[in-house]
Amino acid sequence: MLMFSVFVFGSVVLATISLFMTLEGKAAEAKELILTISGVFSGPLGLILGYYFRSEIEKKHSP
Q1: Which of 7, 21, 23, 60 is a plausible cystine mate for 29, CB 3.0–4.6 Å?
Q2: pLDDT > 90: what percent of the chain?
């Protein structure tokens, strides 16, 4: 699961960089792009990753 989350995070970062390069550095479009990416990480993806890491911590602390 950790490799999957690293893959997803890397893919999103690379997609953001490639989209920003095609926008030629326009600030308004970059702002919208950053808001979209942060919404993805705080929304469903954040929920999935938080649930996974919480279950991993509970496994380590249970006898």
Answers
A1: 23
A2: 0
